[in-house]
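pinging the channel bc i need a second pair of eyes. not urgent but kinda urgent?? the chain im working w is below, pasted from the shared doc
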Amino acid sequence: MTVMATLPAVRGALKADAPLAPLVWFKAGGAAQWLFEPKDADDLSDFLAMLDPAMPVMALGLGSNLIVRDGGVPGVVVRLGKPFAKVESLDATTLVCGGGASGILVSSTARDAGIAGLEFLRSIPGTVGGFVRMNGGAYGRETADILVECEVVLRSGEQVTLLNRDLHYSYRHSNMVDGAVVVSATFRGEPGEPAAIQAEMDRIATAREESQPLRSKTGGSTFKNPDGHKAWALVDEAGCRGLALGGAQVSEKHTNFLLNTGDATSADIEALGEEVRRRVKQKSGVELEWEIQRVGMFADGANRDAVELAK
C-alpha cells in the first residue's frame, strides 16, 4: 500500500512533500509532508473526518506572518485557494468573505458596496482565515471590531458556526482550537461613501509604504507590542537596527521587521529574532513576544516549541 493510499480521497489537490518556501513571504523553509487544497468546505470536512486523528493539521494563508522551519511541517498543511477567495455583500453593511480572501479584496469589495470600517484590512497582508484566528488589526482597528460570525471546519471534520464572543478575542489572539480551519467569515461595517472609503484606504496604503519594507522578503510585524510600549522602539533602543545573522537582518526602515536579504535559512531568521528578544530583555527588562508564527521542525528534526497553526 502506498503512502497516498493511507490518506482519504479528495476532490481538490493533495500533494506529498510540497515545498512551502515559495508560498511564504520569507521565501525560506522546508516542505509540507502533505499540502491539501480543498475544492470546497465539504471536501475539507470529509477529508478531516476520515484523516487519522494523530495526523497534525495546519492552515496556511498567504504566508505573510510565518516562519516555516527548515525541517518542514509534518502532517497536512491546508491551503485555501480560489474557491475560498470570494467576497459578497449580504446587506447594506455586511460582507460574507471566504477564508482565503485577501485583505485587499475584502476592503475593496466593501468600498464598492459603500461599507465603511473595513479599510484597515487593506494594510494587512493576509487572508480572512488568518485575520479571524489572530485578531488581525492595524491603524486602530482589529478583526474583533467587525466580525459577526465565522464558519469553521474542526479537526474532527465537523462544520460549526462561531460567533464573535465565542472566540474571546484579545490583542492578536483568539481561542480558536488547534487544527480548525476558518472557511468563511461575516464582517459588518457601517454605511459610507465609496470616495471617502477610498481616501482612507489610500491614506493607510501611503502610511504603510512610507514606514515598512514592503518590497523585501519579510514576515510583517515580528513582535507584539507590549503593554505601554512599541516593539520597534524597544528593538531600536537595544541597538538592533540593521543587526544581521547569516542571511537575516533587522530592517533599518522599520525595526519590528526581519528580512531575508537573499539566502537566509529559517534558522537564521528565527535565531536573529531570538537574539533581538535577548538584547531587548537585557536593555529594557521587557520580554518581547513573537507575533510571527513559527511552525514545523528544525533541520535536525527537532520540534522544539513548534506551533501547530498559522496565519
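so The radius of gyration is 19 Å. and The chain has six helices and 19 strands. — does that match what u expected or am i reading it wrong
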